[in-house]
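Researcher: Watch the backbone:
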Amino acid sequence: MSDHGANPAVRLGEAPLVLAVRLALGAVEGVWIVGGAVRDAALGSEVADLDLAVAGDPGAAAKAIARELGEHAFELSAEFGTWRVTGASRGWQVDLTVLRGEHIEADLGERDFTIGAVAVPVVGAAEPIDPFGGLADLERRLLRAVSERSFEADPLRLLRAARLAAELGLEIDADTVALARAVADRAADPAGERQLAELRLLIGGPDPMRGLALLDELDLTAVVLPEFEGLRGVEQGPNHHLDVHDHTIAVLEHTLEIERDLGRFAGERAEEVAALLAEPLADEMTRGTALRFGALLHDIAKPATRSERDGFVGFRGHDVAGAETIAEICSRLRASRRLTQHLRGLALHHLRLGFMIPEAPLPPRRVHEYLRATEPVAVDVTLLTVADRLSARGAGPLARPEMVEAHLTLARETIAAALDWRRDGPPVPLLRGDQLARELGLEPGPELGKAMAELEAAQYAGEVTDRAAAVEHARNWLAWSKEEA
């Protein structure tokens, strides 16, 4: 804890956003800073967002703050009396909620954990209000429920317990663990998007491995992610030394290793890969967080596709079936279409590069085929294949060190090609489809589309470089196609 840990009011008083709020509200009393901002101040972390409890009209206070800061205020929920002021360009927000109960102590008693049940008045006394010992729990690195009905009041707090403990490096109080387990079957009650928001913070947080372990400890995994729980005990073939569940955990661990050491896995293009993983994708996730989710879900259909014959274990079609299972999970969690398609793409294509190892070094046409098939997740899924290969350490041929090294080499080369494709796009066509149709006497339709696709591949491979050569290539290719048919 920071030097200000004993009194977070001191650190809050130094925060520019708090100073602006105080200036906006003047001498108005009955407004308290609560929740995460007080906790973060006590931990010595930067305070970027504020939650305010207001004894009165939160809308009036929100509008006053918005005027002072030159931003906009809007109502988030009329039912719960919640308003928000955002400074999107400056990376902060202020949420204001009407006081729950007759006084601030009653409001704090309705909150989830003691570390968030501490308040600091916006004006007046500079001492924090801490009726449940939250600051002492922070000192002890302990996460403790405010009351015995905390989880029943809002079952989302079950997921939040695992997420906060992992994010802040806290132990969960034994009584709180017991309270959570007693109502664990309600963890899937909250709306899917609320569950996804907590899972996003857990998987995308600083210690996702502990977060997942805490989901298990609190008996939540089978409730919120039953498909993932179903991976336990599903034995695999000789290339694997772990069952599907533990293999998946290993893939996530290796995904984190790749994040930490991109120079090893992406070579001289490491900075570009880091920038790509940091890009916002959807549902407040970066591509990096989505890749972690992809690691968790890439083998999700193995239980449904497992077969065993003559001692050989196989999972034929688990990539295609996995994409469909992911769509079902994302629908349940109300994920956006973009995130759903991204995660489906990771599962659908995670085997593709491994099958190409015997052909390395790949001819340009095969590179083109891979890039076309895997866009827009080519870089992401290539990283996933590396994590997947590193996690297979059985006695089978694919687990041999030379095969692993061959995969890593091909992955680095493919990542470079995918980054170039992402930057430059496919080759600019030497002639348009209507022009090719006139040259060859074709009608618009599938045949023309296939001819244009063939020309793109030939142009990427350097086989054609001008218009005349493109027309001749397409004519010969069409003739060959008809002979083959």
User: Anything to note?
Assistant: The radius of gyration is 28 Å. The domain at 1-140 is CATH 3.30.460.10 (Beta Polymerase; domain 2).
